[in-house]
Write a structure and sequence with these properties.
CATH superfamily: Endonuclease/exonuclease/phosphatase
Largest sheet: 6 strands, mixed
Helix content: 25-40%
Organism: Tenacibaculum gallaicum
Order of helices and strands: EHHEHEEEHEEHEHEHEEEEE
Number of helices: 7
Family: Belongs to the DNA repair enzymes AP/ExoA family.
Cofactor: Mn(2+); Mg(2+)
GO biological process, one term: base-excision repair
CATH class: Alpha Beta
Shape: globular
Structural class: alpha+beta
Oligomer: single chain
Number of strands: 14
InterPro entries: AP_endonuc_1, AP_endonuclease_F1_BS, AP_endonuclease_F1_CS, Endo/exonu/phosph_ase_sf, Endo/exonuclease/phosphatase
Radius of gyration: 17 Å
CATH topology: Deoxyribonuclease I, Chain A
Number of domains: 1
Amino acid sequence: MKIISYNVNGIRAALKKGFIDWLQAADPDVICIQETKAHKEQLDVTEFENAGYLYHYWFSAEKKGYSSVAIFCKEEPKHIEYGTGIESMDFEGRNLRVDFDEVSVMSMYLPSGTNSARLDYKFNYMDEILEYATELRKTIPNLVICGDYNICHEEIDIHNPKMKGVSGFLPEEREWLGKFIDSGFIDSFRHLHPEKQEYSWWSYRANARANNKGWRIDYNMVTETLKDKISRAYILPEAKHSDHCPIAVELDL
């Protein structure tokens, strides 16, 4: 199973930049989208269906044009879970899960901490999602949580590890991500590439992408029960529909 995660920073904008052609060429079995910034009814979903993704699911924020996640599948899941049931998380449309027989896949968009109020919200979300994922694994042990975590874990994951006091690389955020992994997850990319320095997000400022001054803040986190099933994990920087790029994990199920 090939799973791709992609923060598209607006699905309608990505479509205008050739997203459908790219999707058909990449050919994932499941793609988890974050930051669609759209509700399903605002889109011509036949574009996705004609590309081979007859099964597409959308969980959008109450606020139009904001946040929101989606998952497109080639095969029909046996169950779809919209949100987490936790109102403080769900009103911004940040979690969507599809369950198959052998694995469940979640698209997650963890908040950024752009100011003090949003940073407080981010920390609260971090606490709640860790607790939620811990409980979820009791009934769904084979789980992949894909998405934009908005945190660099280690110094190798950021072009300038001397950055201080910036949300996304705060000591408390990095510590939490370590705790999340230690709770029973594997960072699939780092698991297979312990020394590789690649990024999944670049600022639009100062020509950051052209100079590869990026951050690795997108992850395909795989539960330890699937450790021996991880066959490939890689980043796709050539896809340029967003300030992020897609990341992929392949599981030998």
